[in-house]
Structures are given as C-alpha cells and as structure tokens.
Q: What sequence folds into this?
C-alpha cells in the first residue's frame, strides 16, 4: 500500500491500547481538528494548532477490513464555527476543556492536504485502525 | 492467532466535506500509514520467543 500522508498512533496512543486491553482508561473516540502545519509523529501529544471547535464524541465500532472485526473505527463530524483551513485531525480519550480544547490524551493523529471550510461547513471523519498479525 | 505477533497494521483517515449549502464532497482517504511491526517488537521485548 502507498503512504499518502502521515496517520499515526502516537506514543501515548500505544499506552491507551495497552490500557484498554487491561480494561483501564477511556475509549479514544473524541475527534478534534487543527489548522497548523507539520507532519504527524509518534512523539506528538496534541494537534497542530487546535481549532476552537469542541471535540466531538464519535460513533465507534469494530469493522472488517481483512479478517472479521479486525479494525477499530470511529466516525465523527465536526462543524466549523468560522472559516477554517483544516490541516490535521486526531482522536483523544476525552473531550478536554477550554477553547480551543486541550487536555485528555491523544491516540491517533493525521495530517493531510488543507481542507478549506466556511462557517457551517463540516467534515465527517472516518478513522480506521486495523490490527493484524 | 499468535498473540505475540499482534500489531497495528494500518491507520487510515477518510473525509467527507459537507457544505453549509447542503452539497457534499467525498475526499476519500486523506491520510494513511501502513505500519511496521512496532507492537510485535514491543511484545517480543517483553516476552522473548
């Protein structure tokens, strides 16, 4: 498969996976977005310049990519409260607080070509994390 | 399944832009990474085969 741009499980995200196997922690299904530049990396702990919109608790499920239920999926829609040039997005294990939202732990982060939005526009993100052996 | 080899294989993000005027733009996959075997390495470091 060809890499398009980075979509990574960050280091804290690996710990979240381990926690969840242990029955600890909270589900990382809160989606947020940002407007800053950069390439997502495992050491990241937040988005690039988080935008003011609150994180959205997505709809999570297990879906099939190759073998039955091998993929964790979160679908979440964020609505722009103002004109935005969105460059990155991620999932957190909590909604966080404040404007822009901060806090909670980053699980997965993706950077991508800018998506320009006007007020009231939205993006429905689908995050998929596939497990294999 | 050999659980010592379980790993995250791929992370993929797709997007559909929904405009305030009701139109939609399906951007498809906007970010994708196919991983190496970090979890395999982690597990094997903890429990060498």
A:
């Amino acid at each position: 498969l060809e890499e398009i741009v980075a979509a990574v499980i960050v280091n804290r995200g690996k710990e979240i996976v381990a926690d969840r196997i242990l029955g600890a922690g909270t589900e990382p299904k809160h989606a947020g977005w940002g407007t800053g530049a950069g390439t997502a990396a495992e050491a990241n702990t937040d988005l690039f310049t988080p935008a003011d919109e609150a994180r959205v608790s997505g709809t999570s499920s297990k879906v099939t990519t190759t073998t039955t239920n091998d993929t964790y999926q979160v679908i979440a829609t964020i609505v722009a409260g103002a004109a935005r040039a969105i460059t990155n997005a991620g999932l957190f294990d909590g909604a966080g607080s404040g404007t822009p939202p901060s806090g909670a732990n980053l699980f997965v982060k993706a950077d991508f070509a800018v998506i320009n939005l006007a007020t009231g526009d939205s993006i429905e993100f689908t995050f998929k994390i596939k497990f294999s052996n | 399944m050999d659980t010592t080899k379980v790993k995250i294989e791929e992370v993929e993000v797709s997007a559909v832009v929904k405009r305030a005027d009701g139109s939609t733009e399906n951007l498809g996959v906007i970010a994708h990474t196919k991983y190496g075997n970090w979890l395999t390495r982690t597990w094997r470091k903890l429990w060498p085969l």
Summary: Strands of chain A lie at 7-9, 30-34, 56-57, 59-63, 71-79, 84-92, 106-117, 122-132. Helices of chain A lie at 11-21. The radius of gyration of chain A is 14 Å.
